[in-house]
Each structure stands twice: as structure tokens, then as C-alpha cells.
Amino acid sequence: MEERNDAWFTRRTSRWQDWPPERLLAAKQQHGVTVSVVIPARNEQRTVGSVVGSVAHSLIETVPLVDELIVMDSDSTDATAEVAARAGAVVYPASEVLQAAGSFPGKGEALWKSLLVSKGDLLVFVDADLTRWGPHFVSGLLGPLLSDEQVQLVKGFYTRVRTESDGSVSTEGGRVTELVARPLISLWWPELAGVVQPLAGEWAARRTLMESLSIPVGYGVELATLMDTVSQHGLDAVAQVDLGSRAHRHQANHDLALMAAELLLVAERRRPGGAARNDVPAGTSLQQFVRDAAGQAIRVSRPVPVTERPPAATVRAQ
Questions:
Q1: Taking the complete model, does pTM exceed 0.85, yes or no?
Q2: CATH topology of domain 2-250
Q3: Residue 17 — φ and ψ, nearest 5°?
């Protein structure tokens, strides 16, 4: 298995510098495909304008590699939508897309809804809270899709830069990856052990792939997509690109624990002999403890997102 991982890593790993936008534009025109960049966002008014503006300037105005730039607004209570629109994005409130199907909070829900409003043959997903990154994230992720028809999914990886409470900077980001995702993969999906960052928020895929997959409504979307792609199309359908370094807003441990619970459920549902999709009922919660102002421990209960949306292709066909 290690030899197989090494061979895949060598064959399917590249750097963003390998994919200059001008060369990709020629390949895009040759293949006759279109590109949509989708940015899921919730209360990211501080950073979303910079993310949108960088893509619009570099990859729409300077080199017209991107045809569509979309922000999926997940019930923001701040000015995320207004800032994104001013910066050049088309903004869709996720809750207003296919209202008959209802709405769930969560990143996966926003990405699933984006499949119903976007048009691109190739989809690039970028987080809205980035503070250190570049538009080369987008062009780098498109490279393998435009150069090899076998590639269905491209994962980004990077040095994750984290600012500590004392103001110092470290590269010890990715706590859920190292504490949850990587142990799960090593134990049950060793063929995926060569994927550097399986939970990376920057990734790209063919529309035909995304519309064929069920999508968890929460943070399990990245892991589920990776596992399902390999299950259905084989390991060589996945490529990865070194995007350099990345920094973003970090979450508290209590929030990361909820993310971990989602990942465990996603993995269990996909493990041979694991739980069926309906084995975990809606209303399942994560029990946590916090201290109040008086120092007393208080138990809090937070719902775990358990819903998975059906393949978008089946919804489009209705």
C-alpha cells in the first residue's frame, strides 16, 4: 500500500507554479469548458471582499480564466453579501435556492445549493475567511483538471499559518486534520494516506462528479467528496496541488469538536459495514461543557448535522 501511495503521490502531485494562467486559458479554450469559482460565506464581511476582488482582478479582468464568480451566503447577519457584491461576485442567499427543499446551516449545504445556480463545467471552491493566500489557488487547482481528463477532483494543500494568542506565528494549523481525519484515513482508508490535506477548503472538481455525489450539509463535505470520488472512480481520479501557504480565521476547540463529530459520522457511513445513511437520527447532539461567569461547569448540547443532500443531478431532473 505504501508503494502505491508513493507512486500516486509522484504522479498526481504538482505545484501551483506548474500551472500559469495564460497556459490554462489556452487549454480551457481548446477544451471548450467554462469555470465557476464558488465561495461559501457566513459572516465574513472582513475578508470576503478581498477574496472576491483578487479573483475578479487576476482571473477575470487580467486573464479571463474564470467565467463565473459566486458567493453563497449562508444566513449571514453582517454585511457579507453587500461586500461580496461590491467586490464583483454574484451573491445567492443559500436559503433562497430551491426553497421547496428547505435549508440547513452549513458549508456543505451552501456548496450543494451552488450546484443548482452555477453553470461552469469546472468548479473551484475557495473559503471566504482567507487572510494569506493568492489567486494562484484557483489557477493551480484548475491545472490538473485542464490537463488530464481522468482527473475528477483536485485537492489543495499548503503550509497552514496560525497566529497564536501571544501574537507569534506558527504552522501548527489543521488540528482536526491531524487529530481526526488522518487517523481515520490511516486505519480504514490507507489508500488515501498520500493526500496531504484531505480537509482542505480549497479544491476543484468537475461538475459531472459533484452532481453525482450525495453532499453532507456540514463540514463533512470535503472528506465525503474525497472518499466517494475514490470509491466510484479510483485513486487516479484525484490529484493534489501545493498552493504554498494559507492563513485564515481559526475556530475554538468547542467548534472544532462539532466538526470532528461530523467527520466521524461521514466516515462511519462510508466504512464497509458501517452505519447506514439513516442510522443516526436528526436531533443527535454533541454534549460539551463550559464554565459560566461564576466558574460553574454547565453542560451544553449542540446539534450534529446528520443530513446528506441527494445528488444534485437527481434534483435537476425533477
A1: yes
A2: Spore Coat Polysaccharide Biosynthesis Protein SpsA; Chain A (3.90.550)
A3: -65, -15
